[in-house]
């Protein structure tokens, strides 16, 4: 299967990405494409527990803007004062305050194409964490909660 088709994550008409679709797309290269992500975690949960493996999700709410990190827009109306520097990858420039990251950019997976049909960040974040748009009636579990349930001791 071509790499391009492995990296596409499909959404439904409302812009929702199911956890299964997302992790199947991301994990396809790791050999779990035939399974849903929950099934793949459940299948290997005992082995992962025995090896002391864990699923750690860090979400730093309120972090710096992309203009001060990985997508600076110097000399533009809304780009701010941050300048861009070259990295170890030709054609990729990041904010001037990240010189060590710039040197190691070949080891970084940089995604600058995340989009959402949601205009409000809190709704888009909820969708990213759960695979569902907030509905008010149902509180869906996050990816981390489902992984933790599957990996926790019986």
Please tell me about this protein's structure.
- The protein has helices at residues 3-6, 19-27, 37-50, 99-103, 121-130, 143-151; strands spanning 84-86, 93-95.
- The two termini are 37 Å apart.
- It is mainly alpha-helical and 154 residues long.
- The protein folds into 2 domains: 3-56 and 114-151, no CATH class; 71-107, no CATH class.
- It is extended and about 55 Å long.
- The longest helix is centred in the N-terminal third of the chain and has 14 residues, at 37-50.
- It has a two-stranded antiparallel sheet with strand order 1-2.
- Helix 3 (37-50) crosses helix 6.
- Helix content is 33%, strand content 4%.
Tally of domains:
2
Q: What's the SSE pattern?
A: HHHEEHHH
* Overall outline: extended
Query: Roughly how many Å apart are the termini?
Result: 37 Å
Low-confidence stretches: 1-9, 28-33
Helical proportion? Answer: 25-40%
């Amino acid at each position: 299967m071509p790499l391009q088709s492995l990296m596409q994550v499909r959404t439904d008409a409302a812009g929702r990405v199911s956890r299964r679709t997302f992790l199947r797309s991301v994990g396809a290269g790791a050999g779990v494409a035939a399974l849903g992500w929950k099934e793949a975690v459940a299948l290997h949960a005992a082995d992962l527990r025995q090896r002391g493996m864990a699923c750690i999700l860090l979400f730093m709410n309120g972090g710096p803007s992309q203009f001060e990190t990985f997508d600076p827009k110097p000399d533009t109306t809304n780009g701010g004062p941050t300048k861009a520097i070259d990295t170890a990858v030709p054609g990729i420039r990041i904010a001037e305050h990240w010189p060590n990251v710039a040197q190691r950019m070949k080891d970084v997976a940089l995604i600058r194409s995340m989009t959402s049909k949601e205009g409000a960040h809190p709704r888009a974040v909820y969708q990213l964490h759960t695979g569902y748009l907030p509905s008010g009636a149902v509180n869906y579990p996050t990816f981390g909660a489902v992984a933790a349930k599957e990996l926790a001791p019986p």
